[in-house]
Design goal:
Blueprint lengths: L3 E2 L9 E7 L4 E9 L2 E4 L5 E2 L6 E6 L10
C-alpha cells in the first residue's frame, strides 16, 4: 500500500488512517479524518494542532481475525 497525497484525495469522513505529519516529520497512527479535520482517535478525538501539516495518509487496515477451529 502506498501513501496518498492529501492534494490528490482525502479519506472518507470518519475513516481511521495513518498520516504523515510534516511539522514533526513523523507518522501518526490512529488518526480519524472528520469534517475536514484530522483527529487523534486515541486521545479523546482531540484535534491535531496543525491539520495543515498532514501531507499524506493511508488507510489503517485491520486484518480479518483468524479462523479458529
Amino acid at each position: 500500500m502506498e501513501w496518498i497525497n492529501v492534494k490528490d484525495r482525502l479519506p472518507e469522513n470518519g475513516q481511521l488512517v495513518w498520516c504523515y505529519y510534516l511539522p514533526n516529520k513523523q507518522v501518526e497512527e490512529d488518526i480519524v479524518y472528520k469534517n475536514g479535520k484530522w483527529y487523534d482517535d486515541i486521545h479523546d478525538n482531540s484535534y491535531l494542532v496543525n491539520s495543515k501539516g498532514v501531507t499524506h495518509w493511508m488507510p489503517k487496515l485491520i486484518p480479518e481475525p483468524p479462523q479458529c477451529t
